[in-house]
Amino acid sequence: MPPSSPASSSSDGFYDIAFKALLGALAVAVPLSNLAWLCGNLTAWATDSGRWAPYQPTEALLHPARLWPKAGETSLLIGARIIPVTAMTALALTAAIWWVRHKNSGNGRKKITGMAKAKDIEPLMAKAITVKARSLRPSLKNATHIDARDTGILLGNLQGTKHEVRMGYEDVAVAIMAPRSGKTTSLAIPSILNAPGPVLLTSNKAAGDAYTATLDARAAAGRVWSMDPQQIAHVQRQMWWNPLADAKTLDGAGRLAGHFLAASVDASQQGDFWSKAGSNILSQLFLAAALDERPITDVMQWLAFPADRTPLDILRDHQFTAVAAQLKGTVEGPPETRDGIYETARQYAAALLNSEIAAWVTPQKDIPEFRPSEFVTSTDTLYLLSKDGGGGASALIAACADSVMRAATAQAERAGGRLDPPMLAILDEAANVCKISDLPDLYSHLGSRGIIPITILQSYRQGQKVWGEPGMDAMWSAATVKVIGSGIDDPDFADKLSRLIGDHDVETTSTSTSESGKSTSVSMRQQRIMPADDIRALPKGTALCFATGMRVAMLDLRPWYLEPGADELAAASARASKAITARAIAKHMPGQSDFGKAA
């Protein structure tokens, strides 16, 4: 005979349903009867209809008149019937609402089991981050009250809670967020608005972006410098910067040439003969121009006429004989090789042929010079704007950003090791407009200097294209905070993130039926906390936070337009956007002066 039959299984199912129904009835009847007894007694006391009845909840629910015979029928109906049922319903609704909010916290988003709780990321919470700020910034050591903006950069709220999650002013961050996933509204703009010290922003947009949203607020904090060589915001030129100021050494000239190389070719192409040779020629000519205090545009004249001996004479006069010998060897080499090398260098620096672009990096009469060494000790703001694929123009943006960070490093060393207040560098669209070749290496020490970079990319592969796979891996590893927003469509990267988030134990219940009855067993199995498909489907307005030495946290982002004072900021942003439109129209009106020229 088989261990069970259809009849016995059906019977077991019936008894299981009946048992659950009995439990449900008891769950309602027990609290309801107790409420009826309590409310009935309170009604009798309030109407002076008898003494306090003994504890008989069932009698109070079914036959209240027996317990309180002197009470009126209407009073008992209200006190022992309507009020208990109403209270029971209210309690049930409250419990249901609480459960829904905690299960699907974060604006209706499903809360994921296994993610970090507040205690898991305590070093990023208000108390710990404030204590850390006191130790990092001497100016705050004896302060009785420290504003949140002085303690760190707000990343968001721990999902479903009011706990703010901040990165400290010794952290360095990488944010990988697709377009329209909150990278500007929830990360770049709030960080800029609340920065206590100097701010550097690179961007390829102006109207309706971080530039317009923060322009007025940062102008109130200090001077605003805008470098707009390709007229994205149609900014009237009110500054110029000398890229050769740091090129008076071979290393400095090489770094400057490296920016032109990185802006022109991908990392995979930078090691070939022509790329390296073209970069070497540029560095040698940059060195010569810097030593003789010439404008950078003179380099284009030397590239046009390789036989010009001026750079050779300058290098020899300043005791750079080995560099002069290398330059001479190239010039006097086989014509086809020389011409190929020089043509490569011309292509890298072609943007300097544009007089409007060149004007931003050559001395201008009656226009102040931007000096990175002075900027890093101020509360000023530097906006560096360039179009995607800007070639040499984006090279100048990267070179200026690099110069500022190097000046900040030097100032930190003079100040005892760290800037106070710290400098914030928001490298938005870094893979398009700010290709600093050794940025991954800089990540290893910038945070310890009080220089806080936040490199914002649209995808991990975008970073690999610029810095190569080893470089992007190095920057990812060196970043103490990684913020991952919605829109991750790379399956390999999503799976990598899934593995980093880890596994958690899941209960598995199994039921078996035999002659002796039904038995239930519970076992544990490992399951991914967030599979790759869940990471791909991460809702907008949320982000994953990977912080060194801590569990991965799910964050609710805090866009600037939902914060206090948003109306004023929105109005200021609208005014700045309208001003850009007006300048663009005026620039192309017949008879109007070119905004690219000095005022």
UniProtKB/TrEMBL annotation:
InterPro entries assigned to the protein according to its UniProt record, in alphabetical order: P-loop_NTPase, T4SS-coupling_protein, TraG-D_C
Main location: membrane
Entry keyword set: Cell membrane, Membrane, Transmembrane, Transmembrane helix
Low complexity: compositionally biased ranges: 508-523
Membrane topology according to the record: Multi-pass membrane protein
Region span, Disordered: 505-525
Compartment annotation: Cell membrane
GO cellular component: plasma membrane
Domain TraD/TraG TraM recognition site, residue spans: 422-540
Record-annotated membrane-spanning stretches: 21-46, 76-100
UniProt key word Nucleotide-binding: no
Listed name of the protein: TraD/TraG TraM recognition site domain-containing protein
